[in-house]
Amino acid sequence: MADQQRAAQEDVAAAEELVAFVNACPSMFHTAAEIRRRLDGAGFAFLPETAAWRIRPGGRYYTVRNNSSVIAFKVGEGCLGARGAAQGAERGSESAAPLRFQLTASHADSPTFKVKAVPELDGPDGYVRLSVEAYGGMIDYTWFDRPLSLAGRVLVRCGSRVESRLVSIDQDVALIPSLAVHLQRGVNEGFSPNRAVDLCPVFSAGCLGRGSLDALVAEAAGVDPAQVLGRDLFLVNRQSPAVWGVAREFVSAPRLDDLMCAHAALKAFTDAENPACVTVFCCFDNEEVGSNTKQGAMSTFLPDALRRVTDALGLSSEDYRRALAASMLVSCDNAHAVHPNHPEKHDAENRCRLNGGLVIKEAANQHYCTDAFSRAAFAAVCDRAGVPYQVFANRSDMAGGSTLGNLSNIQASMHAVDVGCPQLAMHSAYETAGTRDVRLAIKALRAFYEADLRIEGADAVEIG
Ligand code: CO
Asked: Domain ends where: 204, 237, 270?
């Protein structure tokens, strides 16, 4: 096969880096921990929310909430402009240009099943099953007949302390078996599994009893079962991610929505240099269940962090508001590529394909935050960097989804555009995307982080 027909070596390399990231992130708690590990490695300083923040131009920092959402920021050397040059004398002066934030936001969680407080279902006939409930809106049938494991966090009693421990069981421990076709002859005419009946994972066929799950989890956490006081534990699909296809055009993995965007945004953020503004990377938990939690995109986490940055830089409350007015958010969550067997499910013109680059998503009902201003600003940034991009809109008779941009904008309002990598089978236990889109997404988001965006209300943006 001619070289030009194969996915380029650099595309495959980028997709394999994504695969390594997905493997390190079996739950939202692991996603946050992996992001922290990478930020630590890149010289970022951790600022706990409970500590006083000391920050300076040129520094790089991050904070976390609930160990499942992360906000990192790089304070550009020249972000204070005339204020910085005057060493504070000009602070608050009307002549000084506003501070600017350039942010991306992706999400750390994916649809799965969560283990309930009483984790085991006894029987029937000697079986032990796990008692689980849906976290988010998955395609239920994709969870059948797959080796499954468990990951998340447990809270354990250690003397007078209660401590959080990350847990990931690195073995196949459960499976949701299909009912044989002989016992449900109509299954191929329509399959509508009941989550309380059909989706209970089998955990033992007679060897284990009640208490086995906590024994397993306790061993993984290095404690006694009696010490386990609480669990946020989720089922994990054990099928390995893969870069595949004769021409290596595809990358498939669990949790591509939204780890593909989280990975691209993190790489772009850590690689990019922009002395003129404060660049910000956000990865939020709980997008799949509505974002309205203490650490979700709709919480106070983002405005709290941004406000503390301006406070720590010695800026005023008015300066914070001026900064938001001059800032821009790129909300990054995967998009629906045209399905090969169902092209009719997509808009006739506003549709995207695998390996065509990052997708700008727009909806008149504003479930996507894109508008003409933010679309134009982002498109201009991509054009300048020579990075291709695509468009997406829902078919006009379909409701479509929503994502984090419009929700985070409730708490910290600013210009915002919704983008994402094109993918197939969103919310399947095993999703598929294009190899080249990994690299193209990183390139587009890096161009955004490195652009010098001077926003003039909704009148204009000067892109340096
Ligand atoms: Co998503």
From this structure: 237
| pLDDT tens sequence across 214-229 | 999 999 999 999 999 9
What CATH number is associated with residue 10?
3.40.630.10
- Domain edge (last residue) among 206, 237, 268: 237
Distance 292 CA to ligand 1 centre (A): 15
pLDDT single digits (tens) 19-64:
999 999 999 999 999 999 999 999 999 999 999 999 999 999 999 9
| Closest C-alpha to 302, from 282, 316, 319, 286 | 282
CA-nearest of 378, 353, 308 to 65 is: 308
Q: How far away, in angstroms, is 239 Cα from ligand 1 center?
A: 20
pLDDT tens per residue across span 382-428: 999 999 999 999 999 998 888 888 899 999 999 999 999 999 999 99
Distance 207 CA to ligand 1 centre (A): 39
Relative to beta strand 148-158, strand 228-237 is antiparallel
Among 286-300, 367-381, 398-412, the minimum mean pLDDT is found in: 398-412
Range of the domain at 132: 112-237
Same domain? For 220 and 100 the reply is no
pTM for the model stands at: 0.96
The rounded Å distance from CA 97 to ligand 1 centre is 35
Q: How many domains does the chain have?
A: 2
Q: How far is the CA of 169 from the centre of ligand 1 (A)?
A: 25
Residues 262 and 359 in one domain: yes
174 belongs to a structural domain: yes
The answer on 305 and 434 residing in a single domain is yes
Q: Alpha-carbon distance 3 to 14, whole Å?
A: 18
Residues 304 and 196 in one domain: no
Q: Same domain for 137 and 181? A: yes
Separation of 107 CA from ligand 1 center, angstroms? 7
Q: Which two tokens stand for residue 292?
A: 């309205």
Per-chain residues with Cβ under 5 A from ion ligand 1: 257-258, 333
Query: Is 261 in the same domain as 353?
Result: yes
Centre of ligand 1 from the C-alpha of residue 31, in Å: 14
The residues facing 69 across adjacent strands are 65
In whole angstroms, what is the distance from residue 439 CA to residue 60 CA?
A: 24
The band of 89, judged by pLDDT with boundaries at 50, 70 and 90, is: very low
Tell me if 143 is assigned to some domain: yes
The answer to whether residue 244 is domain-embedded is no
Nearest 5°: phi and psi at 68? -135, -10
242, part of any domain: no
In angstroms and rounded to an integer, the radius of gyration of the C-alpha atoms of the chain is 23
Measure 287 CA to ligand 1 centroid, in angstroms: 7
